[in-house]
Backbone:
């Protein structure tokens, strides 16, 4: 026993530790300054939005009608709106909503999409045909119109918004995952695992899912901005988040109404949304390059 | 002198530094001569030719030095525009993979006449007449109709004929052929090689023939040049270089090329007729999803054979002959339509998932592609430990020891055990895959083209490893290959498959001496020999 | 080819049927009717109105009579615009939306593909980075932000272009078209760059170069067709996006198009109008998806073959 231990200890001491593809990808990502900057920006934004209730100097509903709309000043860094509400505060609270919609709806899409795509892709045959046929049909539907319809019919609840958007976005996710799984399914290491007599769930969990994660992460990163855009779009039309709650889309909508007199009410929320979308897209691109070295730039 | 390359050096500038791909290469070629350039992957044999024509993108490539006089004019120092004039007009090329080298969006005819139209300002109708004539010359009948076809309507061999016609349409003085037959079946390869040789003699042009296959080069080239790691190792007349090599590397290369049946002692000893596996009237079909018309294809039709305990049974056939499907059907990786597979008298096709489990341990498979057969996100340790953890009640201690033992068995250093597949070369990966197959201590292994993707020197090492393991562990093996010389080198008996059916079976030396079927005769006659 | 189109059209019918039925029942589930206005209506008047619009029948009867009318092209009267039939409102709004959509699509295709192809010719140089960065900004700049900003800059500060209307003042179509097309131009630029880079690394491009073809022939004749396949496949979804994008643009620029009607109908709970517009737009989108599928398939000879049907 002790002899065996000694042998192992000896060998382990000499083992070279490999670099997993994840570690490799992270190394590549770190060397991409734009993507890394985007990641830092997003992380600080998330922290800022999480801490908003403690950080914000004003309440988001706190009005100051006497003050009215003022341009940016020391007391109000981004100025105030016509009700004298602090724009920075409202922007941060709006960010909470916008980011939350982005992340939760993407998580919903991720969950359904990965499950659906993996099952369809792995099982193949008739099950696959049936499942993907459904996706095709849903794909052909004009979803924006449907979401508007849902908002009209069931009223404007944030929860419904999450579900509706998530329900749309999972389609592409399912397609991507299914394509990946189909490719992996034909790889010889899957056949080797079957030949080894491993149970199906273990093959899926240990051999299939980890290898689909790359594109899934990339696509998830790129879904978040799409979802945020959709929420902002609906809020802009007055069909999304309801005042006095705020979201970036809503703020932009108000800003657009009074942009002639108070341009800062449009510019700051617009900047916030655009730069966040920017960062998410750059991060997604960077992740794609990092996770798929073949597609990367050299 | 047609082409004189002098002191050519090419390097690649990447983020990780400068890497020399071609180092001080010099050679020359006369009109009417065939120069064979031989080397393993990464030897710089293709880059040394592509860079002459400006076909290596710069950057990342960089030509460090050299001249290449083509009829007295330096290809390397001429302007890009002049280079383009020469390229495709006086120097033409054909490439390895005819399936991807033709534009799928344009008709064969359109692609054929382009060189004439752009280099000679030839009218389209004249070019068309010339192209039709040339199609007939390279052996494509019914050229009028074929002219309007798209590449996907052609087989690999036909496409390579089109490529050759396209290269020759401007009547070039020099033809560079980069592995033009590597992607083709051996019988088609023989036809294409003959075509190239015929056209070369008839037109008296110079040909540079790049190949990894010594036997092919032996058959065709007058003059041979051996490259390794960017340098010329040896050059001279084909006969001398390939049959009396002076340099150690060339000697290794020649020795690694499987030739003849070397293992007479094995053949004598392995006379054993105790059946391990008995296949009777096996048929497997599947739905072809490659076109939108879902047709059922019979890949294996009514195949019967016995596999004896302790033997290596070769299974030979060209692509699409159903040999892989047969191997997978036996292991129940595919479900056959009918027939029987008996393993030690037990009918495998009747077993349900549960009852099949013990047999999964006893029968394993080794795959062709060393890059696809290992899960890229599992370390070697995890890959080898997985079957051990699943099929035995061993504790972590003993699993660890067993993994290290497996590493020893296949000749991998123990300290690599925590590394990932992408950190290894193709040969090393194939060793890992073999170790994984051995982990469950199987008695029977199906090896599906396990050395086809490897360079010849590595191929030799893996073949020797397989032989050693078979002897030491008393394994039986079904060895699937398209390569006749490998089968002859390794196997005791051989089965020949063609279009889903078995056409021949017998002891290797007997089949080689006296093939029974016409197809086997044709196969043997087509295989180039060194 | 014809068989393929007919087959796909037949496939579209059940999809449209589901869309229409789902929309119908969904809209009828909505709380608050069209006559729950601010001022309470006298019950007798309300009943008379409901009878006029068939609201007193059972839901299923209403469904049947609606479907019957629909087949004859009758989408019923609008609840909010008395005296107007829904199909007439659509007929008055759609040409405007269609014109706006076509301009935007043209801008998107012309600007997008040329920028993408241009960038792909010299990847990872300034020629690539600059257009692609602009494209990224375009993608991150939603219509509802870009529109007001353009109005602010070109309409209000510079006073170069009118800030609202459609066909009333010279040049008033420029800003809406750009606003709507910009994001799609950006996305198409990225798609065509990716497609071109993919194709340019193919073996057959090397063959074309080895033949000594001039670079413009290599790019335009050999690479473009394959490189633009992703763009063509994107046209269907892009069209759907353009329609919904026009909701915003029409709102911002006060353009009397279908999108604006739809958004107003959504606020006013104008059931028949919502229903009619949804059906109309869905049909259009389904058809456009079909069209872009057919074109994408036609562009690929391998697939084209399978369209002709039957082994030869």
Residues:
């Amino acid at each position: 026993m002790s002899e065996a231990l000694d042998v192992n200890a000896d060998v382990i001491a000499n083992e070279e530790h490999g670099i997993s593809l994840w570690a490799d990808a992270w190394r590549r990502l770190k060397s991409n300054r734009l993507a890394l900057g985007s990641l830092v920006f997003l992380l600080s934004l998330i922290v800022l939005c999480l801490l908003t209730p403690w950080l914000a100097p004003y309440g988001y509903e706190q009005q100051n009608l006497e003050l009215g709309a003022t341009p940016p000043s020391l007391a109000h860094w981004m100025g105030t709106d016509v009700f004298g509400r602090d724009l920075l505060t409202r922007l941060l609270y709006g960010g909470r909503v916008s980011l939350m919609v982005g992340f939760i709806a993407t998580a919903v899409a991720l969950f359904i999409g990965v499950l659906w795509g993996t099952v369809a892709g792995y099982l193949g045959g008739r099950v696959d045909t049936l499942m993907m046929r459904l996706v095709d049909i849903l794909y052909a539907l004009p979803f924006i119109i449907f979401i508007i319809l849902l908002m009209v019919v069931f009223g404007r609840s944030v929860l419904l918004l999450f579900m509706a958007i998530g329900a749309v976005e999972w389609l592409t996710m399912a397609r991507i995952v299914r394509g990946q799984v189909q490719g992996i399914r034909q790889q010889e290491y899957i056949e080797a695992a079957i030949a080894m007599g491993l149970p199906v769930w273990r093959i899926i969990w240990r051999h299939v899912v980890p290898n689909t994660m790359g594109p899934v992460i990339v696509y998830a990163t790129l879904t978040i901005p799409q979802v945020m855009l959709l929420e902002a779009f609906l809020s802009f039309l007055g069909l999304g988040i309801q005042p006095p709650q705020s979201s970036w889309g809503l703020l932009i909508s108000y800003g657009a109404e009074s942009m002639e007199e108070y341009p800062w009410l449009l510019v700051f929320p617009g900047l916030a949304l655009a730069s966040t979308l920017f960062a998410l897209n750059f991060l997604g691109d960077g992740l794609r390059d990092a996770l798929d070295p073949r597609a990367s730039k050299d | 002198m047609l082409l004189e390359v002098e002191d050519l050096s090419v390097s690649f500038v990447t983020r990780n530094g400068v890497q020399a791909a071609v180092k001080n290469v010099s050679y020359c070629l006369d009109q009417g001569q065939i120069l064979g350039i031989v080397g393993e992957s990464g030897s710089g044999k293709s880059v040394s030719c592509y860079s002459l024509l400006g076909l290596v993108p710069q950057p990342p490539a960089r030509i460090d030095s050299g001249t290449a006089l083509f009829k007295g004019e330096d290809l390397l120092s001429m302007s890009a525009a002049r280079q383009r004039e020469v390229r495709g007009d006086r120097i033409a090329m054909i490439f390895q993979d005819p399936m991807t080298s033709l534009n799928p969006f344009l008709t064969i005819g359109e692609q054929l006449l382009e060189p004439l139209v752009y280099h000679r300002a030839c009218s389209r109708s004249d070019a068309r007449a010339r192209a039709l004539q040339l199609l007939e010359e390279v052996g494509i009948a019914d050229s009028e109709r074929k002219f309007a076809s798209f590449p996907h309507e052609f087989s690999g061999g036909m496409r390579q004929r089109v490529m050759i016609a396209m290269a020759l349409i401007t009547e070039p003085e020099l033809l560079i052929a980069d592995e033009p037959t590597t992607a083709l079946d051996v019988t088609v390869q023989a036809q294409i090689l003959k075509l190239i040789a015929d056209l070369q003699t008839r037109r008296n042009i110079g040909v540079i023939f790049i190949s990894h296959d010594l036997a092919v080069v032996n058959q065709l080239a007058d003059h041979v040049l051996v490259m390794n790691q960017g340098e010329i190792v040896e050059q001279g007349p084909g006969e001398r270089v390939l049959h009396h090599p002076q340099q150690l590397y060339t000697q290794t290369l020649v020795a690694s090329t499987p030739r003849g049946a070397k293992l007479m002692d094995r053949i004598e000893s392995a006379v054993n007729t105790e059946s391990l596996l008995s296949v009777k009237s096996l048929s497997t079909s599947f739905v072809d999803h490659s076109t939108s018309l879902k047709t059922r294809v019979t890949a294996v039709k009514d195949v019967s054979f016995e596999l004896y305990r302790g033997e290596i049974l070769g299974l030979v056939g060209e692509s699409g002959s159903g040999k892989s499907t047969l191997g997978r059907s036996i292991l129940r990786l595919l479900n056959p339509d009918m027939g029987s597979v008996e393993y030690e008298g037990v009918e495998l096709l009747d077993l349900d998932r549960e009852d099949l489990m013990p047999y999964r341990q006893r029968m394993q498979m080794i795959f062709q592609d060393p890059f696809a057969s290992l899960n890229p996100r599992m370390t070697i340790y995890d890959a080898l430990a997985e079957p051990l953890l699943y099929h035995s009640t061993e504790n972590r201690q003993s699993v660890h020891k067993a993994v290290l033992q497996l590493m020893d068995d296949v000749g991998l250093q123990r300290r690599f055990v925590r590394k990932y597949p992408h950190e290894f070369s193709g040969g090393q990966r194939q060793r890992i895959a073999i170790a994984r197959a051995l982990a469950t201590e199987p008695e029977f292994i199906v090896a599906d083209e396990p050395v086809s993707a490897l360079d010849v020197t590595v191929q030799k090492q893996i073949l020797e490893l397989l032989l050693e393991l078979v002897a030491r562990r008393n394994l039986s093996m079904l060895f699937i290959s398209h390569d006749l010389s490998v089968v002859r080198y390794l196997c005791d008996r051989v089965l020949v498959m063609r279009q889903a059916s078995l056409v021949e079976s017998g002891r290797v030396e007997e089949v080689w001496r006296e093939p029974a079927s016409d197809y086997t005769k044709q196969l043997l006659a087509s295989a180039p020999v060194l | 080819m014809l068989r393929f189109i007919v087959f796909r059209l037949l496939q579209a019918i059940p999809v449209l049927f589901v869309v229409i039925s789902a929309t119908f029942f969904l809209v009828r589930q909505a709380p608050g009717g069209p006559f729950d206005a601010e001022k309470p209506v006298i019950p007798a008047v309300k009943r008379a109105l409901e009878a006029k619009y068939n609201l007193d029948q059972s839901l299923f009867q209403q469904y049947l009579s609606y479907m019957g009318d629909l087949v004859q092209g009758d989408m019923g009267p609008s609840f909010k615009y008395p005296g107007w039939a829904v199909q007439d409102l659509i007929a008055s709004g759609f040409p405007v939306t269609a014109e706006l959509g076509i301009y935007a699509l043209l801008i998107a295709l012309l600007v997008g593909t040329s920028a993408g192809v241009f960038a792909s010719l010299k990847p990872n140089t300034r020629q690539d980075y600059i257009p692609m960065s602009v494209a990224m900004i375009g993608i991150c700049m939603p219509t509802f932000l870009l529109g007001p900003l353009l109005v602010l800059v070109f309409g209000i500060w510079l006073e170069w272009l009118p800030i609202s209307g459609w066909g009333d003042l010279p040049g008033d179509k420029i800003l809406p078209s750009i606003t709507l097309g910009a994001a799609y131009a950006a996305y198409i630029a990225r798609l065509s760059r990716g497609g071109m880079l993919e194709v340019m690394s193919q073996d057959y491009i090397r063959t074309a170069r080895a033949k000594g073809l001039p670079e413009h022939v290599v790019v335009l004749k050999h690479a473009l067709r394959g490189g633009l396949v992703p763009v063509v496949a994107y046209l269907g979804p892009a069209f759907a996006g353009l329609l919904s994008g026009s909701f915003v643009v029409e709102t911002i620029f006060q353009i009397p198009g279908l999108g604006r009607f739809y958004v107003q109908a959504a606020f006013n709970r104008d059931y028949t109008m919502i229903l009619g517009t949804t059906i109309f737009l869905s049909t259009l989108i389904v058809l456009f998806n079909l069209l872009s599928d057919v074109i994408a398939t036609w562009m690929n000879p391998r697939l084209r073959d399978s369209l002709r049907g039957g082994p030869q």
About this structure: Chain A has a mean pLDDT of 79. The first helix of chain A runs from residue 2 to 14.
